[in-house]
Amino acid sequence: MAKQVLDALLAKFPTAIEKTESQHGDEIAWIQKDQLVAVATWLKDDPAMAFDSPVFVTAIDRLDWRPVGVPPSTHWTEDKPRFEVCYQLRSSKHKHRIRLKISVLEQDGHCPSLATLWSAFDWQERETFDMYGIRFDGHPDLRRIFLYEEFVGYPLRKDYPKEKRQPLVRRDDLPINPIKAGAKPGDAR
Amino acid sequence: MAAPRDVTSLKQLVLGRKDVQDLSLSDDSETELPPELMTVNMGPSHPAMHGTVRIVLSVDGERIVKSDVQPGYLHRCFEKESEYATYTQVFPYTDRLNYVSPMINNVGWAMVVEKLMGLTDRIPKRTEYIRVIVSEMSRMTDHLTCVGASAMELGAFTPFLYFLKAREWLYELLEKVSGARLTHSYVRVGGIAKDLPDGFHDDLTHTLDQIEKVMVEVETMLNANKIFRDRMAGIGVMSKEDALATGCVGPIARACGIDYDVRKDYPYSVYPELDFDVPLGTTGDCLDRYLVRIEELKQCIRILRQCLKQIPDGPTMVDDPRVTLPPKRDTYNTIESMIRHFKHIVDGIRVPPGEAYAFVEGGNGELGFYVVADGTGRPYKAYVRSPSFVHLSTASQLIHNHLIADVVPIFGMINMIGGECDK
After folding, report:
1. Is B93 touching A (CB cutoff 8 A)?
2. Distance CA B176, CA B183 (A)
3. Domains observed in chain A
4. pLDDT tens, B374-421?
5. What are the structural domain ranges in chain B?
6. Fold observed for domain B78-422
7. CB proximity under 8 Å: B 166-195 to A
8. 3-class DSSP string for B380-401
9. Which residues of chain A have a Cβ shorter than 8 Å from any chain B Cβ?
10. Reported pTM
């Protein structure tokens, strides 16, 4: 059903779509970063698309991506984009769904914000920023949402150790601000 | 005759100032409140906050001019922990997301793993029916809690006691089914942990009859109650367009007139075989949210009665060695089964690489799990699309220009569940 959406996208934006794929019935389109806002605006406004309902935003950190049973060429290496930002959209009229994916390089870490198009993405982009450190350009109020301002690092990144503790209440027997190698205080903001 | 009022103590009361004797007592302007906005912290620990959430309010008198809603006090790293747990070990974590309807979370997680493994169409009929039965019972506990607690916060204590009594009957039944009152962990990838207990059919029929009586009592107390209606009607109104753009789903969106129910629009499990209606509101205020929830409770009872009639006999697990544990008898007696059992428990269910998003109609609306698998027994990434989090993001807009007292019914009807919202 939603295959038509991918075909329509490819016909309308032949240069902006990097690739499309279907997995387990979910339709995925990889969008070039600089074209994301244009594509998203069209998906929202075009009557045949009418993606009026935002579903979720999240990101994937590919740092440890070495899946079992597939050729090593698909594994993550340093020259590949480390992050993927996923936007899931739904149309209440046509009942189709699509997932937009944007590749983000580690040294870049920026992605265009869609919070002005769908206000639901306001908090969800803040959550993605909080957990992965992706900076959404054009977001009206990008600050941490679940964690506290003083938190250093981004906990859902694969290189953030699960056992690491950052108590907000200072204790004499713990370092005041346990800083990960390379991170500076205030990095979070 | 009343004693003359002590102006000094009055000023201390109003201004909280200690040096009041320095002021000229004849000047009346000092007894007025300052004209600038006042900042009030509501929460993170507040009896009407349903969990822990903090709202920083800027108020002009009693009117809310600006607010900043801050969740996160219950963040327990669901997603990070899931990456280090096997697919089966995530079930107890999902129990603790929306802890008033854990069964629906269990079903949602099982569905996403089954989708990744291509098992969706192979789940036995009886299993699907049992999943629907426990899901609908969970939806009832969710709505009973939401309506009961909100009524209590508005001063109607009796409905709260009646509904919590009804909820307890359902919890007792779910305890008989799963062994735990609240954290059921009853669903498994490819099926359920065990079949329904003996006498469940009669117990549930009896409970539903009792709950119907309780609902008549509570509706009589609330629906025409002037205090209740005045506090709910016209409060926290949301337009249909706003509800769509802010991603609202479930009873909140339906109260605004959006006809979206995952069970109808993207049917899963055996819902296509069941006959039920999706109630819709017209005004999108708190009263409509309440009425939609009450009607959904009645629809749940309808679904459950049909399920009890239609449920077939059959197995409770899909017959697939990738997800099913070998029978205990074999595990203890043959080396192959013992190894399989061991690999299942220690390495987890091997899910082929790929990604999928599966969603169910939770107590608060579309509850989805997005999983990226890398072929090992643990998810590479697990994300939960929690409806509470999305709904809470509209709270700031809903309470705008309302009185502080209106925060209570608006929050009650958003039904923010801390565990689900903060992950």
Report:
1. no
2. 13
3. 3-137 (3.30.460.80)
4. 888 899 999 999 999 999 989 888 888 888 888 888 988 888 888 888
5. 1-32, 78-422
6. Cytochrome-c3 Hydrogenase; chain B (1.10.645)
7. none
8. CEEEEECHHHHHHCCHHHHHCC
9. 23-26, 52-56, 58, 60-61, 64-70, 86, 88, 92, 95, 99, 118-120, 122-124, 127, 131, 145-148, 155-156, 162
10. 0.85
